[in-house]
Amino acid sequence: MQYGEAMMSLRKNELKKLYLIAGEEKYLAEKFLNALKAKLLPEAKQNNITKLDDTASVNDIIEACSTMPFFCDKNIIHVHSSLFREKKGKTAEKRELLFIDLLANIPEFTVLILETDEKPDKRRKLYKTIEKYGLVFEAEPVRAYNIGEWLKTKFKEIGKTPDTEAYEYLLATINVMQKVSLGFLDKELDKLALFTERRDIRKHDLIDILSGLPEISAFALAEAAGSRDLKKALALLDKQLSSGVPRISILIILIRHIHQLWKINFYLTQGADSRIIGQKLGLVPFIAEKLIVQAKHFELHTLRETVSALADADYKLKTGQNTPVLFEDILIRLCR
Question: CA–CA separation, 182 vs 188, rounded Å?
Answer without folding.
Answer: 10
